[in-house]
Amino acid sequence: MAKRHGLTLAIHDRDGHDDVLDILDAEGWPERVIMHCFSGDAAHARRCLDHGAWLSFSGTVTFKSATPQREALAITPADRILVETDAPFLTPMPCRGKRNGPYLVAHTARFVAEQLAMTETDCCRMLNENGSAAYGGPWGAVAGITREPQNE
Fold this sequence. Notes:
Helices cover 38% and strands 10% of the residues.
């Protein structure tokens, strides 16, 4: 359906990495694919990135035990990185154990900025641009929502 309508396909793959990628290979990848709540390792990331997918990292990338996800983040080109909440679960450090929400995505973005040796401002700018690219244009453009640009 995403291919037929030129829409972004967001996939939440928890334990079926190979199965998901095999299906996409067999059916053909849409133009824009987001691996929502990315939980794979660097090898899985490479397979996704080879097809131009965006990898969206949740709060789990901030966990001490998330070495495979951090290795995946390290090999992901900057223009293919997204962050997300996946609320109400996967709360980032230092709030792990609490109910997750959009207001906590800043912790994940800050962690990503640190991992990439970027300023928080540059990381947020990058993430905004990546989100626009992943969803096919400025926020709301697909839904026909327009707004006047704001002065920075």
